[in-house]
Design brief:
eight-stranded mixed β-sheet, binds zinc ion, five-stranded mixed β-sheet, about 25% strand, alpha/beta, Metallo-beta-lactamase, Chain A, 7 helices, 2 domains
């Protein structure tokens, strides 16, 4: 009696099981469509030659006389970061106006020169200034803010302490008031703390005051290359990193040393590759533009 009952139930149970499998299979196909793994984020880092500074006397780059009487030259790069479909420019160079001056321009104890404008280099990879959503500045010295006026529609990312200082009177050494004047009408996002630009940890602006009050570094996490720390002017050369040299022009010596301490902690913790923008050997170690790191 019981057996017959079980047998009569069997087909119904099998039908139920079949239905259950069908539902699970359909659901998993649907889920795989809806929750498909997102395509990996495309990131690129371009290093663009945005000028050169030649110094008859490098003495100002250390307040402990390490460079006294020595000549030297610094490269001035801009760094262009692609994050998916968006672009961020880190620093803007000496200014495109200088490319038209055959002997460059002598100011701030240096000769500023430029071989090729930033605008034309952007054009060579199919960009115009309005393609750049964010222009982030390590600080507002004129070898970093020379092309602010080229980007009237960008959002400027600048450390909160930087702009009040740069606008103060008399105009601080290294700042040129006409170069930062376009910021009066620019879209601005200043930040008191570190800034994670895209909210995913891949492009972080990190406070490192001392060279100027709002000075920052840039920490990138590139998908293939890994972490890269661009120091801004916390250091100007490999030599200044080794000796923890503090330039005379820096606004705060103690802050500079604290920022160097932070820099060393970051490098230890992340294993980041360090790029000192003004150091020729670091610039030359990067792919020649329009090459890039991924
Ligand atoms: Zn500089």
């Amino acid at each position: 009696m019981i057996l017959r009952r079980v047998r009569s139930l069997m087909p119904q149970a099998q039908r139920g099981l079949l239905l259950l499998f069908a539902v699970i299979a359909t659901a998993s196909v649907f889920a795989s469509c809806v929750y498909a793994e997102p395509a990996p984020l495309e990131m690129r880092l371009y290093a663009i030659d945005c000028g050169r500074l030649d110094y008859p006397n490098m003495d100002g780059f250390s307040d402990t006389d390490d460079y006294a009487g020595q000549t030297g030259s610094l490269v001035v790069p801009c760094f262009l970061v692609r994050h998916g479909s968006e672009w961020l420019l880190w620093d803007t160079g000496v200014g495109d106006r200088i490319a038209a001056l055959p002997n460059g321009e002598v100011k701030q104890e240096a000769r500023f020169s430029l071989r090729r404008t930033l605008a034309s280099q952007l054009t060579s990879i199919g960009l115009v200034p309005d393609s750049i959503r964010y222009v982030a500045l390590s600080h507002l010295h004129s070898d970093h803010g020379g092309n602010i006026g080229l980007f009237p529609h960008a959002v400027f990312l600048i450390g909160a302490a930087e702009l009040p200082w740069a606008r103060s009177l008399p105009t601080p050494e290294g700042v040129e008031a006409p170069l930062i004047a376009p910021l009066d009408h620019a879209k601005m996002e200043s930040f008191d703390k570190d800034r994670d630009v895209f909210g995913d940890g891949t492009v972080r602006i990190l406070k490192a005051p001392g060279h100027t009050p709002g000075h920052c570094m840039l920490l990138l996490k590139l998908p293939k290359t890994g972490p890269i720390l661009i120091t801004g002017d916390l250091f100007h050369q490999r030599r200044s990193l080794k000796g923890h040299l503090v330039p005379r022009v820096n606004t705060n010596r103690a802050d500079t040393l604290a920022s160097i301490n932070r820099f060393e902690g970051l490098v230890n913790a992340t294993g980041a590759r360090v790029i000192i923008p003004h150091e020729r050997q670091d610039f030359d170690s990067l792919p020649a533009f329009p090459g890039f790191l991924e």
